[in-house]
Amino acid sequence: MSDDVSYASFLDKANQDSSSAGTQSKSSKYTTTSVNTSVPSSLQNVDATYVSDTDSQFEPVALSWTQGHLPEAKELAELIGHDSGEVEDVEAKGFDPRGQYKEVLEKVEGAGNGEIRAFRVGHGKTRAEYYIISLDKKGERVVGLKAQAVES
Predict the structure, then answer these.
(1) Residues in CB range of 41: below 8 A, 6 or more apart
(2) Most buried of 22, 23, 65, 66, CB within 10 angstroms?
(3) Which long-range contacts does 73-77 make (Cβ < 8 Å, 24+ apart)?
(4) Do residues 81 and 109 lie in contact, with contact meaning Cβ atoms separated by under 8 Å?
């Protein structure tokens, strides 16, 4: 009977250790700050999915920003806490060449001042986040949507 209890304990411990370690490394590697102020209601619960090797739901972006202009790539990297410097400006048309994210672009335009910018935030060779942002001067914030992508 003690062998069964020992074996069950061993299995519980083995399963617990592997699941917590995998979750921890995954979340710490590909997470950037996307919300530190109130999110406009028009960007909450947007039902749109970014299609890549894995599909990802668009999530709201709302970051305090008092500069009066949309951030450049380096400024966005600092704002979202991404220190690797793998942030590049992507034209909004280049982000959506087939017009499949028209609703996403329109929602971001409406939440901000009408001007939008798209950025690719790299996380290694195959993972990235796409930030579609606009400036809300009245609220002194950058607002928009982001999605994660796997690109092989």
Answers:
(1) none
(2) 65
(3) 73/119, 76/119, 76/121, 76/131, 76/133, 77/121
(4) no
Query: What is the bridge-based pairing of β-strands 127-136 and 116-123?
Result: antiparallel
Give me the helices (H) in the chain, please: 2-29, 73-80, 92-95, 102-111
pTM greater than 0.85 = no
Bridge partners, 63 (sequence order): 142
- Total number of residues shown for the chain: 152
**57-89 pLDDT, tens per residue?**
999 999 999 999 999 999 999 999 987 678 999
Would the CA dihedral through 116, 47, 78, 74 be positive or negative? negative
